[in-house]
Amino acid sequence: MKKMTLVAIALFIAMAASAQVKLGVQAIGTLSDASVKVTDQLDFSKETNITPGGGFVAEFDLGERVSLRTGINYLQHRLTLESKNDPDFQATAENKLHYLQLPVNVLYNVPVGTHTFFVGAGGFLNYGISGESVQTIRETELDGSVTVTTETLK
Predict the structure, then answer these.
(1) What is the pLDDT of residues 104-115, one digit of tens each?
(2) pLDDT of 106-144, one tens digit each?
(3) 104 and 122 in contact (C-beta within 8 Å)?
(4) Rounded to 5°, angle at Cα 57 from 53 and 60
(5) Contact present, 125 and 70 (Cβ < 8 Å)
(6) What's CA 86's distance to the chain center, in Å?
(7) What's the predicted TM-score (pTM) here?
């Protein structure tokens, strides 16, 4: 991970030194969702989570109306699964994933009065830096006692 971060910073500085560049910070977010396929008897429900992120952005002019926008972002993705269809057995799993993202977009800028609108396309590279899954199982025994088991996986 250190090598990837150092390479991104070096590219960022090298491009800034050789071109007209606009630098900034940005606040971003994600709508985390997933497709879940369960092969056993449990029927999981899931919820979509809104998670925050942020990063640094740099835009390099390549021509009068064309520019290259890149940067480095920190993003979170979260998914919560719950199974509550059986009152005697309930399972919950909350998954949190953390990523560094390196987007690269080519923009076409259109000046309109005092404002500039843009249309762009591109892609990105993600690098997972950490993750955690907390799984909780709540079971009610025949005698009425309740057992709660929690396991954290990193």
Answers:
(1) 999 999 999 999
(2) 999 999 999 989 999 999 999 999 999 898 888 888 888
(3) yes
(4) 160
(5) no
(6) 32
(7) 0.67
